[in-house]
Structures are given as C-alpha cells and as structure tokens.
Amino acid sequence: MTVEVRTSFQQDGKKYRNYEKNPQDRIQERVKNHYYNQHKRQTVEFVDEMHKKWLSFTHAKMPILQALDVLSNFLDESDPDVDEANLTHAYQTAERLRKAHPDKPWMHLAGLVHDLGKVMSVWGEEQWAVTGAEVHCSCETQSSVQLLF
Predict the structure, then answer these.
(1) Less crowded by CB within 10 Å, the N or C end of the chain?
(2) Residue 59 marked in a binding site
C-alpha cells in the first residue's frame, strides 16, 4: 500500500502547511521547536501525571464565552498557518463552517469550541503538551516520517 502525503497546498494565493526547512522563517522555527519538544517529552508517565492533574476538574469553572476570551491572547505555537490569537481562529473556523454547512448548527459550535482545551496553558501547561495536530506517546517515530528536526 502506498500513502501519499500532501504536505503543502495553495489556496487563495497563499501556501499552507509548508514544512520545507527555512531557519529564517520565524513561524516555521516556532512549529519545529513545538514538535521537537512534543516528540521528546510526551511519555506514558507524563500522560498519567496529566490525567491526575486535569481530570480532577479543579482548575476553574467558567462559561464558554469566558473560556474563549481567555484564548484572546493565546498564540498556538504548533500551527504553521496561523499567526494570530486563538480567539480569532475560533470565530473564523465557526464562520467558515457556518457558510459551508448552514444547515448544521452543531458543526458551527464545534468549530467555535474545538480548541478550548488550550486554556490549560493559562495554568502553566506548556504548549507541546496542549496543542498540536497529533499526540505521540512513547512511540518510536517510523523511518518513513520526515520530521522537521
């Protein structure tokens, strides 16, 4: 079986998901450092600790709009395509889903709240543990996967 991975694409004249090495690219370096830390530090023991810490639900209780507001100054270091606050990203995602799927209000809501877990960073959690497209836990990376680092 052959799997084709499309690492970058263009839309509206802008190139997205560009992972070609470029040390002068500030955003790419930010993303590289994020995934480097995630791959090196995400362990079963770490996940067990985080389950104990976060599944007690003792950090805060707040309405969704307040949680979204917490993200008004949060910049996701794992995303090579976004260099703006997560609150803006949340509303943009919800609005694009509303336009694409006007008959599915549940999807608009899902787009709005899909990144709310990132509020954990407010209580000191490092971004490599909170954000990212995938989470690796004590798995050796396959040789076919090309990493940025």
Answers:
(1) N
(2) no
What is the 8-class DSSP label of residue 117? G
Q: How many domains does the chain have?
A: 1
Q: Is residue 94 part of a domain?
A: yes
Q: Is 125 domain-assigned?
A: yes
Residue with tokens 């362990």: 43
115 is in an annotated binding site: yes
Inter-residue contact 47 to 99 (CB < 8 Å)? no
DSSP 8-class letter at 74: -
Let me know if residue 5 belongs to a domain: no
Which residue in the block uniquely carries the two structure tokens 């003792």?
58
The 3-state DSSP composition of the chain as helix, strand, coil percent (nearest 5) reads 50, 5, 45
Long-range contacts of 110-117 (CB under 8 A, 24+ apart): 112/68, 113/64, 113/68, 114/90, 115/71, 115/76, 115/86, 115/89, 115/90, 116/64, 116/67, 116/68, 116/71
Task: Flag whether 76 is marked binding.
Answer: no
Q: Which residue has the tokens 């190139």?
A: 15
Residue range of the domain that includes 117:
22-130
pLDDT per position as a tens digit, 84-123: 899 999 999 999 999 999 999 999 999 999 999 999 998 8
